[in-house]
Write a structure and sequence with these properties.
Strand content: 25-35%
Largest sheet: 6 strands, mixed
CATH topology of the largest domain: Rossmann fold
Number of helices: 10
Strand order of the largest sheet: 6-7-8-3-9-10
Shape: elongated
Helix content: 25-40%
Radius of gyration: 24 Å
Number of domains: 2
CATH architecture of the largest domain: 3-Layer(aba) Sandwich
Mean pLDDT: 88
Oligomer: single chain
Distance between the termini: 38 Å
Length: 309
């Protein structure tokens, strides 16, 4: 089966020569959740804007459900729902009319039951007759999501959907995304909240400087690139790491109470056994040992630094 979204060698150069996208290629399968991570100015929003037809690409191709975004724009765009970063809503219009109008603009038949279900899932049903200007910022963002879902898209773009919103909405968003995935909706999420990507994505893409550094299954990425750390709690504090232990590149914690040892989970030998023997030989007595895996955030920061080097 062909990918629901296929991006091939996509480039975007603005007047003045700035290259926002430098040959991005990416296939996204139906029903998956892809988290697209990258710092400000990395190209995330430009990529989304181009796929959604807001920005015209300089070169390359994009198809959505088999429809080209240039030669078959209307059919391609009807497959896409977009929740933008900016809240741009008609302030004097009511919630119900706003959502219903969006569905009509995509040529969909009236379906009040569907729209009611969407509003209820977003905790907006009791606000359906409220004017947009009377809503809180979090509620306005819920309206944006309702609008994006109103025409039953197969692909949903969430561009920083929980930036600046309350924890409750963020939690609701995760639940909504999980439910949409069950329904077969494909979701591309850009976020600065690494925990969102770690919690709900199937794959993670890292973009920086207009280039896609990698796209990989989240679990495989963390296993492949994740470093583990062994924190050694000491019975007696140290003023410095003994010279005899220099080969282990240990980091001495505050007040000399801990030693931290980083090791690669992919290597055949971790070196932990050798380290523990060396500690004993140097008269260092342990109180406890604690291990931890690198988080997706730490992996992401490392990748961006490598890409910028």
């Amino acid at each position: 089966m062909a990918p629901i979204l296929r991006i091939t060698d996509l480039k975007k150069t603005y007047d003045g020569g700035f290259e926002a996208l430098k040959g991005v290629s990416l296939d996204i399968e139906e029903g998956e959740i892809l988290a697209l991570l990258g710092p400000n100015g990395a190209g995330k929003t430009t990529l989304i804007s181009t796929v959604c037809g807001i920005t015209v690409p300089t070169s390359g191709t994009v198809t959505v459900g088999g429809h080209d975004i240039i030669t078959d724009y209307r059919a391609a765009r009807s497959q896409i729902g977009l929740v933008p970063q900016e809240i741009n809503l008609e302030p004097f219009e009511k919630v119900w009319n706003t959502v219903r109008l969006t569905r009509g603009m995509f040529g969909k038949k009236r379906d009040d039951a569907l729209l009611e279900d969407i509003l209820r899932r977003l905790s907006l049903w009791d606000k359906k007759d409220t004017r947009i200007k009377e809503l809180s910022g979090g509620m306005k963002r819920r309206v944006l999501i309702a609008k994006a879902l109103s025409h039953e898209p197969r692909v949903l773009f969430l561009d920083e959907p929980t930036a600046g919103v309350d924890v409750e909405l963020r939690k609701d968003m995760w639940e909504i995304v999980a439910e949409l995935k069950k329904q077969g909706v494909t979701i591309i999420l850009t976020t600065h909240y690494i925990e969102e990507a770690e919690a709900i994505s199937d794959r993670v893409g890292v973009i920086n400087g207009g280039q896609l550094l990698l796209v990989e299954e989240k679990k495989a990425l963390m296993e492949r690139m994740g470093q583990k750390q062994l924190t050694i709690e000491l019975r007696e504090p140290l003023s410095a790491v003994p010279e005899a232990l220099a080969e282990f590149d240990l980091e001495l914690g505050e007040e000399g109470q801990t030693l931290t040892y980083s090791y690669d989970t992919r290597k055949e030998r971790t070196g932990i056994t050798t380290l523990l023997s060396a500690l004993s030989d140097n008269g260092i007595v342990l109180r406890d040992l604690v291990t931890r895996q690198s988080s997706l955030e730490e992996i992401f920061v490392g990748l961006v630094k490598e890409g910028a080097a």
